[in-house]
Specification:
315 residues; mainly alpha; 62% helix; elongated
């Protein structure tokens, strides 16, 4: 697999780069951000599948799920660039400063049955922790964007003059005037919780990458494709209910001078409880199938592009 420590790609422990020279400090991070841009472009192939979720918008209660259709895989290129760039950065920090300890490396590797070597390597647990850190980092960029998008996407009046917001700038301006920056960042805590599930995405990506590298004859791009697609599906299986709750919070009226209605959810558990009372367990999984179907091709393509650019860029 191409993602070796020596080539500074997404998975730094693969065997494909063992004979390459160690990178210097000057080239540690920029490639992750540049490759993330190309990965985001590749991922734009997915939204057409996710838009099929509009079929769940027949009833007013279900309209909030339409917002999930456009947010479920974070198509924004800037978001993807910062996510993968920060992921690469945190993996290196953890590898060089935390899991370089033989004791910690052994504690992380022994439960997996893998041999503890003297060569520093980042275990799957470390990849998962880096995923959480990257998710939290990008949340401060993504949360306000997703919040504005969600509010615009649930405006269904045919007469545009009857809509509360005429566009993203108008939406942002009105929320700022009525509620300040706190209003713009409405749903940040729910976003941080949702993106904590990046632990399962990037931890499973590392595990799948190693399994495919060690037990198949697949090429590096093929390994990137299958590991990227399958790990994304692991992520959505574990995180989807929290995304549903997040979108309910982001589309809840803010109230006050904004004039959009009365606020219903003051805490995360209030939104989760309301979904349970209305639809039970099924409410947390409404619209899951289109998102799950989209996750594999969109993220498999994105990871292939990311790893290819990482291999191509000079150190």
């Amino acid at each position: 697999m191409s993602a070796s420590v020596n080539s500074v790609v997404v998975n730094p422990d693969s065997k494909s780069g063992r004979n390459q020279a160690q990178p210097t400090a000057a080239n540690k991070n920029y490639r992750g951000f540049v490759a993330g841009v190309f990965s985001g472009i590749a991922k734009l192939s997915g939204p057409y599948i996710s838009k099929s979720k509009q079929s769940f918008s027949v009833q007013s209660y279900s309209r909030t799920y339409l917002a999930i259709a456009f947010n479920c895989a974070n198509d924004d290129m800037a978001d993807h660039k910062h996510m993968l760039g920060s992921l690469t950065f945190y993996r290196r920090i953890l590898k060089d400063n935390v899991f370089s300890s033989p004791f910690l490396r052994g504690a992380a590797l022994r439960p997996t049955g893998m041999a503890v070597t003297t060569e520093p390597r980042l275990p799957a647990f470390g990849h998962g922790i880096a995923g959480i850190m990257a998710g939290w980092t990008v949340s401060f960029i993504a949360a306000p964007i997703e919040h504005i998008k969600a509010r615009l996407q649930i405006q269904y009046s045919v007469d545009k003059s009857k809509r509360l917001y005429s566009g993203p700038i108008d939406c942002c301006t009105k929320i700022l005037r009525a509620h300040g920056f706190h209003g713009i960042y409405h749903g940040l805590a729910a976003t941080l919780l949702f993106r904590s599930f990046f632990f399962f995405w990037w931890g499973s990506y590392d595990i799948l990458t190693k399994l495919l590298s060690n037990h198949t004859a697949l090429s590096a791009p093929a390994i990137n494709f299958w590991a990227g697609g399958l790990s994304a599906q692991v992520f959505w299986i574990t995180s989807y209910p929290s995304d549903v709750v997040k979108q309910r919070i982001m589309t809840d009226p803010l109230g006050g001078n904004l004039g959009d209605g009365n606020r219903r959810f003051f805490r995360w558990k209030d939104a989760a409880k309301e979904i349970w009372q209305r639809d039970g367990v099924r409410g947390y999984w409404r619209g899951f199938l289109p998102c799950f179907m989209r996750a594999f091709p969109a993220n498999a393509t994105a990871l292939v592009a990311f790893e290819a650019v990482m291999r191509a860029l000079p150190e």
